[in-house]
Amino acid sequence: MQGAFDQATRLFTGKNTSTCAQEGALRDNEGLVEYLLRRSEVLSSSTASSTSTTTK
């Protein structure tokens, strides 16, 4: 999941991940990062069902 966190950090801070930026982004966007990680897990686990529903 480190890659997803790096991507989220760059997206919301505009910086490459360093220890300082990582800690700052985690503190500032903790709920948002958790939401994105949860959402990516849900999307990856439900791709089969979502593709069948979107092809109506």
Tell me what the structure shows.
By secondary structure, the chain is mainly alpha-helical. 82% of the residues lie in helices and 0% in strands. It contains 4 helices and no strands. The chain has helices spanning 2-13, 19-28, 30-45, 47-54. Helix 1 packs across helix 2. The longest helix has 16 residues, at 30-45. 5% of the residues are buried.
Give a brief description.
With 56 residues, the chain is mainly alpha-helical.
Keyphrases for this structure?
56 residues, mainly alpha, 4 helices
Number of H/I helices: 4
Describe the largest sheet.
none
- Helix share, percent: over 70%
Question: Which structural class should the secondary elements be placed in?
Answer: mainly alpha
Query: In total, how many beta strands?
Result: 0
Average pLDDT value? 66
Terminal CA distance: 33 Å
Instruction: Spell out the helices and strands N to C.
Output: HHHH
Protein topology:
Blueprint: H1 2-13, H2 19-28, H3 30-45, H4 47-54
Helix pairs in contact: 1-2
